[in-house]
Amino acid sequence: MAKHLPAANVLPATSTAEAAALLAAGEGRIDAVIASGRAAEIHNLRVLIDDIGDNREATTRFISVAKPGKPNPATGADKTSLVLYMKENHPGALLEILTEFAVRGVDLSRIESRPTKKSMGDYTFSVDLIGHVNEARVGEALMGLHRVCADVRFLGSYPRHDNVATVTKPGTTDAEHREAETWLDQIRIGDY
């Protein structure tokens, strides 16, 4: 903006959709907005310049917030979001958390750290993983995290926006987990 329109007076808006609506309504002294082509269609606005973004692959994430309840059924192309709280900061603390995913073949698509502001070095980790809480490998990872973390906040399991099916590595499918459980049950009753 500063390079191409140095004299422009930039006004903040809560969203690009709101900015487009304000321009269409003629509210205030607004001459142009940065918004999607869809917003221009909805509000009958003229597009001055297309493709001004710096990353064609960028996407905006939206979430639906609801009271806790039973997770949606698995689709086979799911993500699960969690917030993980470390018990204490020590060398290898993050490795302990990541190991719970790695040994079960659970792929992370996003991890972000945030300070808790309780004490120096105290962090939470916001994580998106590929899979659904109802899948054995994801459920086992959550049980492992429950043991090594001070708290695990389950934010939900939901269909992936790209609808790409979850790929599991050999030894981590639900059928293989059931077979391993049967094997262990047989050992426990002396039938091996």
TrEMBL record:
Pfam families, sorted: ACT, PDT
GO cellular component, one term: cytoplasm
GO terms, biological process: L-phenylalanine biosynthetic process
Domain ACT stretches: 82-159
Record-annotated membrane-spanning stretches: none
Domain Prephenate dehydratase, first and last residues per copy: 1-67
Entry GO MF terms: prephenate dehydratase activity
Protein name: prephenate dehydratase
Source species: freshwater metagenome
